[in-house]
Amino acid sequence: MATCSRRVPFLLCLVSIFCALSSASLVSAAKRQYIVYLGGHNHGSSPVTEADLHAVTDSHHGLLATYLGDLERAKDAIRYSYTRHINGFTAILDDEEAAEIAKHPGVVSVFPDQKRKLHTTNSWHFMMLDKEIDTPTGKRNVPNELWKAARFGENVIIGNLDTGVWPESQSFSDKGYGAVPSRWRGLCENNTKAGVPCNRKLIGSRLYNKGIISAVNAQTADPADIYSPRDVDGHGTHTLSTAGGDFVPGVSFLGTASGVAKGGAPRARVASYKVCYADGCMDSDILAAFDGAIADGVDVLSVSLGADTLAGYTYLTDGQAIGSFHAVRAGIVVVASAGNEGPDQGSVKNMAPWIITVGASTGDRSVDAYAELGNGERLKGTAIFAKPLPEHKQYPLANAADVKLPNATAADAALCLPGTLDPKKAKGKILACLRGQTARVDKSQQAKNAGAIGVILCNDKPDGASLNDDIHAVPTSHVTYKDGLKVYKYINDTKKKNPTAYIAPPVNTYGNKPAPSMASFSSRGPNAVTPQLLKPDVTAPGVNVLAAYTMANGGKYPYAMESGTSMSCPHVAGVAALVKAVHPDWSPSAIHSAIMTTARTRSNAEDKITNEDEEESTSFGYGSGHIRPSRAIKPGLVYEVAPHEYLDFLCSIGYNSSDIDQLMEKGYKCSKKAKSVFDHNYPSFSVPNLGSGPVTFTRKVKNVGPPGIYAAEVNEPYGVAVKVVPDVLKFEKYGEEKSFKVMVAAKWKGAAKKYEFGGLTWTDGEHYVRSPIFVTNDLVIDRPSNVIVGHY
Ligand SMILES: *[C@@H]1O[C@H](CO)[C@@H](O)[C@H](O)[C@H]1NC(C)=O
Ligand SMILES: *[C@@H]1O[C@H](CO)[C@@H](O)[C@H](O)[C@H]1NC(C)=O
Ligand SMILES: *[C@@H]1O[C@H](CO)[C@@H](O)[C@H](O)[C@H]1NC(C)=O
Ligand SMILES: *[C@@H]1O[C@H](CO)[C@@H](O)[C@H](O)[C@H]1NC(C)=O
Prior knowledge:
Blueprint: H1 10-15, H2 17-22, E1 31-40, H3 50-68, H4 71-77, E2 78-82, E3 86-94, H5 95-102, E4 109-112, E5 115-118, H6 145-149, E6 157-162, E7 202-207, H7 210-215, H8 223-226, H9 235-244, E8 248-253, E9 256-261, E10 269-274, E11 276-277, E12 280-282, H10 283-296, E13 300-303, E14 305-306, H11 319-329, E15 333-337, E16 356-361, E17 366-368, E18 371-373, E19 378-379, E20 384-385, E21 395-399, H12 410-414, H13 423-426, E22 430-434, H14 440-449, E23 454-458, E24 471-472, E25 476-479, H15 481-494, E26 500-503, E27 507-509, E28 517-518, E29 538-541, E30 545-548, E31 559-562, H16 565-582, H17 588-597, E32 610-611, H18 619-622, H19 629-632, E33 637-638, H20 643-652, H21 657-660, E34 685-687, E35 695-703, E36 708-715, E37 720-725, E38 728-731, E39 737-746, E40 756-763, E41 768-775
Parallel strand pairs: 6-10, 6-13, 7-10, 13-15, 15-16, 16-29, 20-24, 21-22, 22-23, 23-25, 28-32, 34-41
Antiparallel strand pairs: 1-3, 1-4, 2-3, 5-12, 5-14, 8-9, 11-12, 17-27, 18-19, 18-26, 21-26, 30-31, 33-35, 35-39, 36-38, 36-40, 37-39, 40-41
Helix pairs in contact: 3-4, 9-16, 10-11
Bound molecules: 2-acetamido-2-deoxy-beta-D-glucopyranose (4 copies).
């Protein structure tokens, strides 16, 4: 029966689910990959030997054999055995087997191995590039004091879980770098032709592909992708270089955004952990990469991907949350993207308290390509394109709906969908195309195919004022919803009289105001799993970010522009590396707190940060605010979380001692009187259900500055009384910790019906330790109970 016989090479067995299925003897139920999570390892203090690791794998085989019948079958079913820090395995099981194993003593959770998403809005548009372009160089770079103080992150090791790395990028040149830090235990997998050679800058590159090979049809997958640690997509090179790429002068992108490319911590060492492929990123591979990165000795992990938080989601059934948990316990700062499902509320991802969760906002640079209408109106749009229109004059303008093919609907043609535009009518015109349904750059491509000479790409309502510096096939001006209405109105009003327009060549502008503003795609709070924990934590630049790119598949652009929380996440990872460089002994939670409490909620126009639709944003968008690296190294006070307090947190949301016992601390007991989730020492305050009565938070802050007297300043949310006791804290020395309580009560019955926001700031006159406060009467999130009861 075992068609997956020993004679078939092991790899072939791996690549074929079919193979695993057919070896499943009598069980007819569909099989799939499951992750069986057993908590953490306690390898003790002596160095871990290969024998130790083998013993762990043997124990996994043994455990599985008791459910599958025999050892051989167990070995066939296992894809990964997590042996270093994370304890568990990934195996091909049917649902009944999975359910049985979940009941096994010591099993924390059993969950299907699912695909995760990279958090980029559009990472494919570079494939469509035009070729013959010269790239002028530029100069715009002055290192500031913080960077110098942090020695540009020298010798801090940043790891990145992503699509791999393009090692030849200048951003990873090791010119001027000394020996690799001796504590580093990682390496580069360079055993194939498509391997990654390391240097003293790029010190690690590993490939985790067992999950993806087993989950997808490896026959159709690109071997250069799934069998190589190299980045064929560009995403991983982009994110890794954003976090820790070195200074590379003279970088520009089709002549725009020129200047010095660099990461947040340009002198950091970097390591790539490839877990994402054209076919997706499997949780099982992600978990393996965390296990590897922890063992290698990274200091900071940047993870621009995440799980959907569907009903049934829990922190301990998400490989990324589990991996992050073990990383943070090992002293590693973990930064992850909030997701790109905004602006819907409750769309934020990666909301475990041990993860720094990052939203995305605009910077102050834009590439403006004005649309000039025949009525004299100049609309500020954005876009990048190679060849401007031949002459500065007016060209015929048409609504794409009006140049439709006979067999297309007007609605489809308005969107410039493929096969909808009539070359006879479109030729020589500038088309107004509506955003939506297809990639933005595909619309200008369709226009070009139909003979049009330009596009005004008009936002739909949900996208508001959210603009992208995409590269377009014809001169294009991507305009806001409001400006788009003007375009359509002008066309309507002058249809008989032949409307006209011109697209001006793109120009860089810097110092745009207001900036930042929250990107509409950035996923928003509240936290759907634990609403008592405000997420995201902070925001950082994630719109039109220029960073290193892959040169795979004949790529011509070593630097490219991308948008997404994928891009903002590594900015924060870079800043975390800088803080770590200045304070090597700080815990991940201290760095987490420092980055949050020093963030800023005002824009460069000194107003509250807005959304891209120009309405005021809230902590659901930006969390504590926009990161301020120069303050984060001197936060004054930090809200620190001891490792066991993350366990207390899990108890407080419904896990019991026998579950948590496995998570590294043998003998740990949830305290009888379950600790309140409000007492988790987080640097922000969230009251989702004030209607059920007043809430008291207990918090403690640790002085990491000079001795000082801090006073509490409260900005009460509307209709809510906030009392801080005591409201003055006196610190006599560095490292001293003080507790306080924050009592939150409604000022009248039914207060805070809406979402209300305020803040608490501790200040000694020099440091401002700011925390947002969110209050609402009765938060309803469209998900089942957030309380986790036992096993999944
Ligand atoms: C990696 O492999 C390439 C080609 O296989 C080889 O040229 C290079 O020297 C190797 N680099 C290192 C650092 O081992
Ligand atoms: C309309 O017909 C053309 C061929 O004349 C075809 O290329 C196109 O795909 C069709 N479009 C739709 C929307 O069916
Ligand atoms: C333009 O005309 C179309 C169809 O006649 C209509 O649907 C649309 O609302 C008009 N748009 C504006 C901005 O006037
Ligand atoms: C913990 O929860 C599991 C699953 O719900 C249950 O089987 C176990 O008895 C519980 N343990 C304790 C100590 O309550």
